[in-house]
Amino acid sequence: MTPPPFSPPLSRLRIGSAPDSWGVWFPDDPRQVPWQRFLDEVSRAGYEWIELGPYGYLPTDPARLTEETARRGLRVSAGTVFTGLHHGEAVWEKTWAHVADNAALARAMGAGHLVVIPSFWRDDRTGRVLEDRNLTADQWRDLTRLTERLGREVRDRFGLRIVVHPHADTHIDGEENVSRFLDATDPDLVALCLDTGHYAYCGGDSVALIERYGERIGYLHLKQVDPGILAEVVAQGIPFGPAVARGVMCEPPAGVPALEPVLAAAQALDVDLFAIVEQDMYPCPPDRPFPIARRTRRFLRSCGA
């Protein structure tokens, strides 16, 4: 009798990485590595899947980007957009123009997801407070209603699924706000991109979230935070950008949360999920990302991924 083919313990998870793990936050910045180097190094580090990163960092011509990724053995899992939908109808047209460009490129590259990040309540580089950190009831209604609209439009026009990314210094951050957001949105239109680092940064428990809202988890970002630096960040009220520059997001397995139980909980959902390594490192020396990426891929393989 022929034995069944071997399946890795985490066979439902597709591991990738992103420009963020190479210190890329902006379409064009002299402190960031050139896109060609990112593609070369992410492939050499052992990843097969990537995200597009900030629109305009990678080539936006699908034919050229297809050629560049294919010859390095890479495929695209998702695009990323920033939105401020709690501001209501007044921002819809501008938001849609930004989303449509990203979604069109993601679809052309064969991706199935669009990662949606809420806008910051304070500037992620300067720390300047832009608006109140707490939304009013009306703003919550606008946020949930327009996010559902975005999910419907992106699905119907581009065939992509939106996955909303809780993020530090935004209005969708820790357990309370994430639960409120999920409870108020339609599961058929809005899924969650659980970023393990951001959720821990904001005091959340990723395993508990997966166990409670498993049907809403549509995508994963894998990262860890340094608990010592995080304690300083919280105590001193340091904004996210300067916190990253201090090294609050660290190389696994040195930080929290432990990724093994998170990966096991995700595997237990018994659905195919992308699990994209995304270690915030802006700015960083150009030679720093590649060794970290290679070690991280090796670590994830040791976990069965």
TrEMBL record:
Domain Xylose isomerase-like TIM barrel: 39-302
Domain of life the protein comes from: Bacteria
InterPro entries with a match to the protein in the record: IolE/XylAMocC-like (IPR050312), Xyl_isomerase-like_sf (IPR036237), Xyl_isomerase-like_TIM-brl (IPR013022)
Any matching Pfam family: AP_endonuc_2
SUPFAM superfamilies: Xylose isomerase-like (SSF51658)
Matching PANTHER family: HYDROXYPYRUVATE ISOMERASE, INOSOSE DEHYDRATASE
Name of this chain's protein: Xylose isomerase-like TIM barrel domain-containing protein
Organism: Streptomyces lavendofoliae
